[in-house]
Amino acid sequence: MNEKEFSSYYAYHLNYALKNNLTSSEDFFSHVWQIVQSRIKHFEMQDPFSNNHGMHRQNLAKLQQFQKYPNRIDEWNGRPANIVITEKDELT
Predict the structure, then answer these.
(1) Residues 6+ apart with CB under 8 A from 22
(2) Quick one: CA torsion of 19, 20, 23, 29, rounded to 10 degrees?
(3) What burial class does residue 89 get, using C-beta atoms within 10 Å of its C-beta: 0-12 exposed, 13-18 middle, 19+ buried?
(4) CA–CA distance, 45 with 74 (Å, rounded to integer)
(5) What does the angle CA 40 – CA 43 – CA 49 come to, to the nearest 5 degrees?
(6) Which of 67, 79, 76, 80 is nearest to 6 (CA)?
(7) CA distance linking residue 90 with residue 71, whole number of Å
(8) Exposed, middle or buried by CB within 10 Å (0-12, 13-18, 19+), for 29?
């Protein structure tokens, strides 16, 4: 998926969840953020000497690239407090 498509991808799934009364925007954001964070940790823990290392690195890079999108739209400070606090401290 191209980085330009992240917004549309996120909005499509958010709109589906909201339309079907599955969650709120804030809970959806938190859920997506947790999934992405969990998958990043998964790929970071993979054996660098495995035959799948190249694919794991590509997946990790794409997840890290996608993670920047929710970070930009976080209007609830829905990410873990330590991350939000660190970012705010860096701004001052």
Answers:
(1) 16
(2) -50
(3) exposed
(4) 27
(5) 155
(6) 67
(7) 15
(8) buried
Distance CA 15, CA 4 (A): 18
Name residue 59's amino acid: N
For the chain, give the longest Cα–Cα distance: 45
Q: What is the pLDDT of residues 40-86, one digit of tens each?
A: 999 999 999 999 999 999 999 999 999 999 888 888 877 777 776 77
Q: Which two tokens stand for residue 9?
A: 């991808």
Burial class, 69, CB count within 10 angstroms (exposed 0-12 / middle 13-18 / buried 19+)? middle
